[in-house]
Amino acid sequence: MGEAIYRAQQGREHPAAKALKGFGGRSVLEVIDDYDGDTYRAVYTIRFAEAVYVLHAFQKKAKKGIATPRHEIDLIRRRLKRAEDHFRGIQG
Predict the structure, then answer these.
(1) Burial of 85: CB neighbours in 10 Å, binned 0-12, 13-18, 19+
(2) 4-61 pLDDT per residue, tens
(3) Which of 17, 31, 39, 44 falls 20 to 30 Å from 24 in CA-CA distance?
């Protein structure tokens, strides 16, 4: 996951990064990784030219289905809005 975010900071995309559905294109990406029998996800945005914002990182707990749970999507949407507000603020 760290490698994917590092590549995003360099303007490149990690082969494991994929668009998170419901966010309109490839500006919000997720990386999924398995470790010790558990699945983890990191979600970040490359929507801004000079910044990469990590919006959420979590362990997927559901044992059925691969979809990201609704409460996680809602949290990501709120954090994306905060990232947009922050980025506009630093652009001045």
Answers:
(1) exposed
(2) 999 999 999 999 999 999 998 999 999 999 999 999 999 999 999 889 999 999 998 7
(3) 39
For residues 22 and 69, give the distance between their C-alpha atoms in angstroms, rounded to a whole number.
Answer: 12
Could you give the CA distance from residue 18 to residue 9 in angstroms, rounded to a whole number? 16
Instruction: Give CA 40 to chain center in angstroms.
Output: 12
Residues 6+ apart with CB under 8 A from 14: 3, 4, 7, 8, 31
Please list the residues that pair with 36 across neighbouring strands: none
Tell the burial category of 24 from Cβ atoms under 10 Å away from its Cβ (0-12, 13-18, 19+): exposed
With tokens 């995309």, the residue in question is 13
Q: How confident is the model at residue 92 (pLDDT cuts 50, 70, 90)?
A: low
